[in-house]
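Course exercise 7: structure representation. Students receive a sequence record and must write out the corresponding structure in token form. The form below is the worked example handed out in class, using STAS domain-containing protein (147 residues). Read each field label carefully; the graders check that inputs and outputs are placed in the correct fields and that the protein name is recorded exactly as given.

STUDENT ID: A-19
EXERCISE PROTEIN: STAS domain-containing protein
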Amino acid sequence: MQHPSHPARTRTAPGVPCTRGHAAAKHLAPGRAVTSYATSGDRVRVTVRGELDLVSGNRLRGPLGEALTASTTGLDLDLSELAFCDCAGLTVLMELRLRALSRGKTVVIRRSGAATDRLLRLLGAQDLFSPPGPHGPSPRPLTPATA
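STUDENT ANSWER:
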């Protein structure tokens, strides 16, 4: 059974929620995710731990949107401690990316684990979360990967 995500939040920077540390993420029930946030210059680094699926993704949309709003140029995602990510979880990331692009910002995956890498590779979406080129973000559409 899926359990909803309840990220513990404190404020470390104006408008940026933060978990209270790594201990909360070590023993997560299935279907839960926690996030932590840190401001670094004009970007906000977001670390997601646990499982990113329909239930946890719906609960993280608000906090991720707040982090995007608090950033000047966008978000840097660390998904290396994400144990599971399905298509519903990826949809949350894709929507976040589109929201960022509409504001002239980017969402970059700086670190990811095997589960997330595989999903992005299968869908041909890994380049959508790459750092922008010299001319800014490229709002390319999602295209299927070729076998």
